[in-house]
Design brief:
2 domains, mainly alpha, single chain
């Protein structure tokens, strides 16, 4: 009974959100004219537009939270099967940390200054870190492809 009640409740909620969004959209469209100023539009249907945005924000937040929570739950339920994915994400993050905090410098800044473009030192460090990140990921991907092909030969 609990599962059926939850489904019915969520269906009613979904229909209510759709009806509220459609009704607010109809009110906004029916009150707007093509040659109105922002002030006139805000006075005519501004409060309805705010309500519509609140619905959009709420649905977006709930959908994002559900995606993250269900993704984490699925990952944790099949943790042993997904250990390779976890290792890949950790390596990806470590390569990024090394690229941006150990290898990057302001070398790009001199090239920008020579061409007359104004760039801050922080932007230069970020650009340098991004370049190192791409280079390292490229090398790692080439090495992993070579490793996979060579190990396949000996299997």
């Amino acid at each position: 009974m609990g599962d059926k009640g939850l489904r019915i409740g969520l269906s009613i909620l979904r229909i209510a959100i759709i009806v509220a969004g459609a009704a607010l959209t109809w009110i906004i469209l029916s009150n707007s004219v093509s040659e109105e100023t922002w002030q006139e539009g805000n006075e005519s249907y501004g409060q309805y537009l705010d309500q519509l945005f609140y619905i959009i924000y709420a649905v977006g937040i709930v959908a994002g939270a559900a995606a993250v929570l269900f993704g984490l739950a699925f990952f944790l339920m099949r943790f042993r099967e997904k250990i390779g994915t976890l290792i890949g994400v950790i390596v990806f993050a470590l390569v990024g940390i090394v690229s941006f905090y150990q290898l990057s410098d302001s070398t790009v800044l001199r090239a920008y200054e020579a061409s007359g473009i104004t760039v801050t030192e922080g932007e230069s460090w970020f650009a340098g870190g991004g370049l190192w990140y791409v280079y390292l990921l490229g090398l790692i991907s080439i090495a992993s492809i070579v490793w996979a092909e060579v190990s396949r030969i000996f299997k």
